[in-house]
Amino acid sequence: MLKKLSVICAVCLALIASASPIAKIPAKSGVVVYANVSEIIKYPLVQQFLGSVTLPPEISINDFEGKVALGASFTGDIKKEKNLAFNAVYQTAKPTAGKLFNLLSAEAMKSGAKKFKVAGKPAFGDDDARAILISPKEVILQARSGKYKFVNLKKSKNLLTNRPEVKNSTLVVAIDTPAFASMVSQKLKQNEQEVKDLLAGQKLAIGSLKLNADGSLAFANQTLLVDAAATQKVLAISKQSIEDLKKDPAAAAILEKVSVTSKGNTVTISGKFSAMEVQGAIAQIMMMVSKLNAPAQQATAPAAPAAPVAK
What we know:
Blueprint: H1 2-19, E1 31-36, H2 37-42, H3 44-50, E2 66-75, E3 83-92, H4 97-110, E4 114-118, E5 121-125, E6 129-135, E7 138-145, E8 171-176, H5 177-187, H6 192-199, E9 202-211, E10 217-225, H7 228-245, H8 249-255, E11 258-263, E12 266-273, H9 275-300
Antiparallel strand pairs: 1-2, 1-8, 2-3, 3-7, 4-5, 5-6, 6-7, 8-9, 9-10, 10-12, 11-12
């Protein structure tokens, strides 16, 4: 009996894993992003923003609830060769994927897109982008350039497959650091060695963000490294960077809540903020931005009129 239960549990877990939009992101994606759209929509600060958004009458904000995963593949010099591929899988919480598909289709038709089928599924697009309605709860969006071709997505292992951060996070970003470093260093040739030195020894970077319904949030940025020496180097650089930023009193108030730790060959920068602290941090950031913009605004402001000369 116990053996049968374990088999049933294993099957259930497999079905849950395959149902995640992450499961269809190609294995060779150098960047993989996961987002729980439902949690983003329900976050108080986002709700404030959405209150001013106007949507077509046939669709509502709630129709977007669900989960989405996106994978980006790139090869060579991104600036010169433009060898890029994007694959996004959007799984809606309710059977509203058709609404999203139809809305996108109507706009795309105005720009010359054509309707067709992919593996028997409704689709539209052109040579560089396409959308496919897989089911009432799933739509796939794809874009490509250069040598990349469209591929029909299927279950595969990628940077976020089986990563524990996905289970309890609202947003997760995973980056294949060596591949990304190669692309960036070629784009920024004047700083190529500097970029290589900074990213040397890094294998994978994973950033996660948890948005809570009460307005609080937590974040963590993990860097996985090749050995102890690389770990100590990144740990020291991370700690020093935080201390340097704290020299600004406005930034210091925020960064006091941020910690830098290491475990094995992983360096983690993390922090937790209450709803009040989030509001305060936003106010501090806006203040810093306004200070940065002030000199430019003063330089472009018209000169004050000269005072009249007394006669």
